[in-house]
Model the fold of this input.
Amino acid sequence: MIRSELLAKLRQAHPHLSSHAVETALDTILGEIAETLSQDHRVELRGFGSFFSKVRVARTGRNPRTGEPVDVPPKRHMHFRASRQLLKRLNRPTTPG
Done:
């Protein structure tokens, strides 16, 4: 699902809200999640999962063309851990046919 599809579903689920209000709410939620992660904090959405960042340490890599050593600086990357409820929902048996 892409952002526009999510907005369409939210508008359909809440027809009493204006399109602008729905889009502003989604932008605010996603912006707060991004801002919190950028401050190296964890975001937990109960029943869905948690987002958190980890640091990859600095290392020496190799240039694939020349084979020369290259210093790779430390980087932060994001992780997502699904909640038990979400995992249970994803892995429930499907009915045949």
